[in-house]
């Protein structure tokens, strides 16, 4: 396990018997405790776990709704791995059994042929009884899940697949900043990425109050840190920025109201709002974000928190494309590299679901 890995799995990215559409996410009287069980097999250059890096062999199954899956989609695009790792997208909602491929013709993933992601998990283990989560890296030759360890997946895309990175791909894990990236990502995961869930799924007032204070203490720290630096670590984007971005981009749309993280909106925090816009407008970030699917997932699937299932019409998304002014802080998103090219046909976000042109 890499030091950059959080070593935990997302409940929002999972479907399991006790957690799903119509299920229970907030346990009365309890604080939210993250499920830490996952399949930690790795795809590596040396094939140490029996799964060597091999172009065309693996399929990344993600969902645009899920922040943990969104990370993998961003990193795959930034590194230019579209031609070597295919992408399958589940729909924004799921029931207690599994994520489904209802966005695809006939409701089946066109490569794997599955209607539900759980079929890939059962190919790996017919008795599999844990969370059916995204992202999942699937061996397309067998249809079986290799790993759903979301934190390690993105680290391995950067380190194990280097031979297949595009020319000009950014180094998201530069060795000279390794310790600082590890420290920042651990803090961001514990206090922010997971912090919003600790608020939203709190089962008691005291659990919520503690989670709320921890979250806002961390967001205040990040606001201060980003006042005079363009990126979290160094002068270009790193894994740390990817991990923070996927929470920030969902903050006003779902976490502020749905998860009761409502001291301020992101738009009311000048440094964080400008930082988030800077990343959103950077190729590889905002062009992977589908706000409509994000809202549908949280407001429909978490039926114990939002029993009516009503999906809010707002917020207004036009601010995401306004000037951010972060260029004055120096740095460059891709360092000495270059931005990724246009989004591939078939992987583009519905134009009605994003403010990007």
From TrEMBL:
The active site is at 66 (nucleophile), 197 (proton donor/acceptor). The keyword Transferase applies. Residues 1-26, 314-357 are annotated as: Disordered. InterPro entries: Glutathione-S-Trfase_C-like, Glutathione-S-Trfase_C_sf, Glutathione_S-Trfase, Glutathione_S-Trfase_N, GST_Omega-like_C, GST_Omega/GSH, Thioredoxin-like_sf. The record marks 255, 298 as: Lowers pKa of active site Cys. One of its GO terms (cellular component) is cytoplasm. The keyword Transferase applies. Residues 171-298 form the GST C-terminal domain. Glutathione binds at residue 99. It comes from the Bacteria. One of its GO terms (molecular function) is glutathione transferase activity. The lineage of its organism: Bacteria, Bacillati, Actinomycetota, Actinomycetes, Actinopolysporales. This is Putative glutathione S-transferase. PROSITE patterns: GST_CTER. Keywords: Transferase.
């Amino acid at each position: 396990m890499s030091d950059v890995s959080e070593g935990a799995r997302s409940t929002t990215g999972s479907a399991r018997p006790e957690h799903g559409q119509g299920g229970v996410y907030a346990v009365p009287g309890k604080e939210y405790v993250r499920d830490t069980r996952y399949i930690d097999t790795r795809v590596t250059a040396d094939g140490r776990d029996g799964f060597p890096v091999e172009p065309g062999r693996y399929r990344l199954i993600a969902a645009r709704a899920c922040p943990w899956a969104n990370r993998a989609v961003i990193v795959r695009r930034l590194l230019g791995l579209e031609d070597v790792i295919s992408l399958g997208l589940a729909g924004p909602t799921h029931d207690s059994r599994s994520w489904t491929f209802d966005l695809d013709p006939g409701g089946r993933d066109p490569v794997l042929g599955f209607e539900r992601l759980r079929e890939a998990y059962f190919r790996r283990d017919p008795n599999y009884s844990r969370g059916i989560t995204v992202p999942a890296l699937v061996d397309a030759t067998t249809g079986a899940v290799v790993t759903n360890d979301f934190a390690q997946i993105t680290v391995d895309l950067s380190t194990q697949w280097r031979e297949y990175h595009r020319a000009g791909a950014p180094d998201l894990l530069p060795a000279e900043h390794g310790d600082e990236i590890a420290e920042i990502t651990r803090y961001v995961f514990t206090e922010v990425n997971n912090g919003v869930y600790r608020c939203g799924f709190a089962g008691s007032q005291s659990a919520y109050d503690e989670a709320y204070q921890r979250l806002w203490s961390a967001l205040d720290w990040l606001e201060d840190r980003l006042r005079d630096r363009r990126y979290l670590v160094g002068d270009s984007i790193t894994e740390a920025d990817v991990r923070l971005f996927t929470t920030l981009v969902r903050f006003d749309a779902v976490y502020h109201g749905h998860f009761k993280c409502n001291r301020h909106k992101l738009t009311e925090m000048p440094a964080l709002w400008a930082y988030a816009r800077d990343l959103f407008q950077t190729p590889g970030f905002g062009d992977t974000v589908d706000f409509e699917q994000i809202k549908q997932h949280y407001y429909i699937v978490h039926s114990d928190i939002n029993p009516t299932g009503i999906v809010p019409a707002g917020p207004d998304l036009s601010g995401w494309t306004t000037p951010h002014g972060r260029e004055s802080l120096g740095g460059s998103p891709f360092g000495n590299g270059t931005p990724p090219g246009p989004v591939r046909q078939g992987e583009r976000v519905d134009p009605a679901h994003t403010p990007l042109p």
